[in-house]
Each structure stands twice: as structure tokens, then as C-alpha cells.
Input
Amino acid sequence: MARILITSGPTRQYLDPVRYLTNGSSGRMGAALALAVLEAGHEAVVVSGPVEVDYPLGAEVVSVVTTEEMLEAARDLFPPCDGLLGVAAPCDYCPVVFQPNKMAKTGSVQSLELTETPDILATIGAMKADRQWMVSFALETEDGRARALKKLHRKNADWIVLNGPEVICESSTQVEVLDRSGTVLAELSGTKREVARSLFELIEANLARPILDGVGQR
Amino acid sequence: MARILITSGPTRQYLDPVRYLTNGSSGRMGAALALAVLEAGHEAVVVSGPVEVDYPLGAEVVSVVTTEEMLEAARDLFPPCDGLLGVAAPCDYCPVVFQPNKMAKTGSVQSLELTETPDILATIGAMKADRQWMVSFALETEDGRARALKKLHRKNADWIVLNGPEVICESSTQVEVLDRSGTVLAELSGTKREVARSLFELIEANLARPILDGVGQR
Output
């Protein structure tokens, strides 16, 4: 039995106590992957941003709000895990200044300074042991494969799963799975549940098995 | 039978195809108010931003994403209505520039120019006929009553319902109802369903009845 960490859902970066930057990630693909992991007889640990989706019974769920919190939880939970499915869509930008009270309208243009949040998977990827695998996800709106491959290397992932913005919040999806050389290992489409199952089978057969078998030939 | 318009939920203002500014409004209070309206034997028309909540069967629901869309829908739907419950939390700020492709990280601080979105209730309040009433909601983190009263007058509302950020996404709430003179007409607390029912009873007894009776003494 393996123990798989899944990051899932969006994160939020607050401007003031009420308003925040985020994205439409629903956690549905994370929930589908957790189910595929559990159905294959493994343990699923989900670090999730705020979502309405129900994760499957039997998954351990750690709830977070911000990208920093997701990073911290993932960093704590990853060491004893065999692999990581990084399907979360962490908010990449954080207001430089947090306003402790709700901003009031002034009638004029305001300038909001944004810094980039820490890269969760790059941090995890840098601490990844030889026995551990990592599959990250990329949502790109242009130049998909090239950008995804660059991300894969920046994050030190084994594979990257590429999709487009049209799948956000939908029940169906279509993805390409790329390895470190940029080869398209698979094109998968269907409900998120079907795609999650096919993807995890592919991982078990190619990334996880050598480790489980103690061969370690990666 | 009266016809009541309810604006509900958050709106989103996109920076690029993936990222947006929003807030944690869940639509729960809007759904509770729609139920109270229906249970009192009236028609409920809900203009709602993206939420996961289920509006009651029998409510007409118009789904929108942005503040502009919510304004347009509310403006179209309000004229034949008897009253408006403005419980939505429209996003007040909109990026000056929309990036048509997903912004890529650059490693440096970015400046995001924000303009204020149109004030939905001020627009509706300005077109409100004598036979129509409007109750707006204010979420304040400081100086609550004074700010709420200022909002009431800016929006030309009859009453304003004041609450704090701690009620966002919760199933319970506590509110104060203020009239145009700043008098606290009621303090209500309980589940959102209970508060919605009490609030709508108060409206029916004080704001709506003179109109329904044809007295028009407001």
C-alpha cells in the first residue's frame, strides 16, 4: 500500500478581510484522484483550499486557505508519502499590503502591488527523494506543451498533466500527460472520474511500480 | 402577491482567463430570503453570482458572473417588481486591463490597476418608483452603523441590514436593521433561514404592506 499526497482546489490571497484573489478551481479533479487512489487500495492525503466538493470518505483531508498554508501543510505531509499529485491551483499572486479593514470606495483608480507566492511544487520537488514521484498539473491558455514542460522541470516533477481553462469547474476534462523529455505519454478525456482513474493506472504502471517493487530504476 | 427581486452571491472580476478578484459570499442568505419570499406566497426572482448553494425550487434564477452582468440583469428585472433585497456582495474592483492569456510569473512585483465597478444598488435606487421598496445589506469591519447609513442614502434604500465579515459562508448570522433615520428597527440573530424569515416579516409589515394596501404612505 502506498501513501499518496494530493494538493487540490484553489487558494485565496486576501486584500482585506473580505476581498481576495483566487481562481475557479473546484477541487473536483482532486476529489476524483483521491477516489482513484483509494479504489486502488492506497492511502490518500488531500491538502485542499476552500472548495464545496466532497472528498471521498476515507481520504485524510487537511483544509487550508492561502498558498503559504498549502505549502506548509504539503511540506509537512510529503516526507512519508510515496508520491504527490499536484492538482491544486494555488493563487500565484499575493497583495504586498493586507488592509486590516475593508477598503472603502474612493471613486478613483487604485494600484494594487502584487508579489508572487512561493511555488509549492518547486519546493516539494526540491525535497523529493529517489523513492518518491511527483506529477504536477498545468493549466495553460497558449503555447501549452512548451510552457508545461518548462514547469515540469522548474518543479522537478516526473510528469506533467496539461489542460486548458475550459475544464475549470466542469465535470469532464481532457488532458495530455507529458514526461520529462516532453513526450506525450497519453491523451485522456472523459469525466474527471474516468480521467483520474486512467491517469492513476498509468502512474501505477510506470512511475510507482518500480518503486513499489524495490527496483528504483527511474 | 408581490414580486421580489433578490441579488445574491459574489461576483467575479477577472485579471486573466483564470484569475479573478472576488469575496466569500456563499449565496446562503440570498437563498434563505428567496425561501422566505416564496413561503409568504410571493414570487422570488434571484440574480446570482457563481455560488454552489441551491436556490429554492420555485425561485426564478438568473446566473451572472461579473458586477456589470449583475447590474444589467437587475436593471432589466426590477421595473415590474415590488421590492428588492440587495444581499449580493458584488466585487467592487475591476482590473483596468484584462490579460487575454494567463499571466506568467516573472519573479518581480507587479502592479495591478483597479477601477471601481458600477454601484448596482445605487443604480437601481435611482430608478426606484414610489410603489417600490429596496432593502440593501452592508458588511462592515469598522464603524458599522455610520458606514451602513451612508450606504443606505447613497443607494437610496429604505432600509439597510448591517452585518460583519464573520457571517460570510456561515449558516448562522446576526444583523441590525436600520431605517433612513439611522434608527435600529431590529436586531436579528439565528440561522440565516430564521433571520431571513424575521426580516421579510418585518418588511411585509412595514415597507410592503402600505403598498400592497394601496395606501402608498412611505
Observations:
- The longest helix of chain A spans residues 192-212.
